[in-house]
What does this fold into?
Amino acid sequence: MGEFCLQCSLQCIDDMIKELRLAGYGVRVGAQYVGSVLYADDIALLAGSCYKLQKMLDICTEYGHTWDITLTQLEASYLQWVERIHLWA
It folds into this structure.
C-alpha cells in the first residue's frame, strides 16, 4: 500500500511539472526547461518575472487542492535578479 501511495504522489508531481512546463511561465536555457527544480520534497520555481512566478504558484496551488497535497510556505523565499545594462558613451 505504501509503494502505491508513493507512485501516485510521484505521478502527481510529474504531472504538475509537465503543466508548469506547458504553461510557458518558467525559465528556459536554450530549448531546455529549467523553470522547476526538484530535490527530495522541495520544489524551486524559476520565472522571468513576478507575474510569471505567481502564475506558476497558482498552478502548484491548484494541483495541491486537486490531489490533497499540502504546500507549505515555511521555507519560501524570493530572489530577484536584475540585469543591469551598461551603456558606454
